[in-house]
Each structure stands twice: as structure tokens, then as C-alpha cells.
Amino acid sequence: MSLVYKICPAPLWRAAEAAGRFEGSEVDRADGFIHFSTATQMRETAARHFAGQDGLLLVAVDGDALGNALRYEPSRGGDLFPHLYGPLPVAAVRSVRPLPLGPEGRHLFPDGDAP
After folding, report:
1. Domain extents in the chain
2. Does 110 have pLDDT greater than 90?
3. InterPro entries in the record, alphabetically (predicted)?
4. What's the rounded Cα separation, in Å, for the pair 48 and 101?
5. What is the pLDDT of residue 75?
6. What pLDDT, in 10s, does the model give residues 15-28?
7. Strand order from edge to edge, sheet including 34-35
8. At the topology level of CATH, where does 3-99 sit?
9. Which member of 22, 57, 74, 81 has the lowest number of beta carbons within 10 Å of its beta carbon?
10. What is the pLDDT of residue 112?
11. What percentage of the chain's residues is helix, strand, coil (to nearest 5)?
């Protein structure tokens, strides 16, 4: 199983859980796909796109369960990022953990979710 990660505001994710699927954030919908990060990319993603934001969740997803709808495409600096073309079924989620801010304003990642 290869895990991919979505950083998501808690209320948006809780609505997805209730619906059984995540349709993406406003940015995802505007771009036409759901943005994910790999384990090595998620810290930089948090720093670049979620700096100073509290109330976030780190959603770990079984990338293999998403099939061909998950594509790795060049993005930031030519690095390949996972993008999901279609909704994310909640059944593919392996864990949902808080992503709190630490005292220096950086996100504190749960043990075991990042290298």
C-alpha cells in the first residue's frame, strides 16, 4: 500500500465523512483534481499552503485503492505530486489525525506519518 496525504480543514473533512466522499477543497475544485502529497512532500506543503492555519487534519489515503484516477504529475520544482481526478471515497482513508500548530507556528506531524 502506498500512502498519499491530504491536509484538510477539520470542518471540510467532517462533512466529507458524513457524505462518504470528499469532493475536494475550493482550490482542488478550481484546479480540476484533488491535491495530495507524498510523505516526503507533506511538510513543505503544510509550510507553503497552510502556514499558520490551525484546525487542520492530516488524512492518510491508500493510493493503490484509488486506481488510475490517481496520477503523479509534475508540480513544484518539477517534483511529481499525486493528483486525484475524481472524488475521494472515505473508504480509501487509512487514518485521520490532528495537525496542530507548534509553539513556533509550524505544524506538528504525528509520529509515523513522515520520514
Report:
1. 3-99
2. no
3. DUF952
4. 14
5. 84
6. 999 999 999 999 99
7. 34-35, 80-84, 70-74
8. ADP-ribosylation fold (3.20.170)
9. 74
10. 52
11. 30, 35, 35
